[in-house]
Known about the structure:
- With about 325 residues, this protein is α+β, with helices and mostly antiparallel strands.
- It has helices at about 15-40, 45-50, 60-65, 75-115, 120-125, 130-155, 165-180, 185-195, 210-230, 240-255, 260-270, 320-325; strands at about 10, 280, 290, 300, 305-315, 330-334.
- Helix 1 packs across helix 4 and helix 6 crosses helix 8.
- Residues about 325-330 have low confidence and may be disordered.
Amino acid sequence: MSVITVQCRVVASEATRHHLWQIMVQKNTPLINELLKQVGKQAEFEQWLNKGKLPSGIVRPLCNSLIAEECFSGQPKRFYKSAIEVTEYIYKSWLARQKKQQRRLDGKIRWLSILKSDEELVESSGRSLENIKEKALEILVQSTTQAVEQQKQNRKNKKGSSTKKKSSKKLLTTLFEAYEQTEDDLERYAIVYLLKNNCEIPEKEEDPEKFAQKLHKKEIEIERLRELLTSRMPHGRDLTGEEWLKALSIAANTVPENEEEARLWQNRLLKKPSSIPFPIQFTSNEDFIWSKNDKGRICFKLSGLNEHIFEIFCDSPEGDASRIADNSIGFNAS
């Protein structure tokens, strides 16, 4: 399918812009803010969080239950549909990001659980460090050979490139898998030795102080990821700054129960309130009613705003402007 891009400007009267802005600020954005809260309060939310996906059909019933409330009523039907779509999009993106962060956290916790200093490896295995190094070298040669063969096969099948970064990542994955599968203690400790030394056999002895710093760094990373996963939720847009003022009042008059709560308040205060409402999405040709005015300019009306006219000002001949009406697939009012 060919895609034609035409640069244009959509122009509307001041009355139309004012009417659209008022609905977006006073009705639609507050509705989306409330929908975001309602989704997070559902009993199945933890299940959706673990799956990293919001099931279809969740937001619409919540929206229908809010339509009768005065603060959300009086919007065109298309605006309610837009609120549902925006809420679904926000949670789709947020849940996918949370799942990715959870995988990162699980990986770091898994790594921290097997990480040991050279002294601990010797003590736990009952073998000398030289024995562990010899086994590590044997595993490294075997794993590297397998990785090279896999690269050759991939190039032959044109399934991937042979970049050094991809090779290194593949080797790490192979070593982690081998660690999980083997029941031989010496092999497991040798794999740990390789993993903590970036898949190399170091010539110098391990510095206990540097190892302790590395261990502490991983612990900090894990703690920060945990905070990120537990403290952040889609909060919508605070157009009036009311939520920010509430956070300021709480922070000024209440003693936080712990560091996590104090950090949460700090994050809310440092976050600048958005002054732009959520967009109204018109995503199909059925939302557009096309016409020409007495000057021959391409115009359109939007579903739910039939009394308001939008004109298209193009930087190209009228023939190009006509393609907009013929091929248009969507419009984002923001």
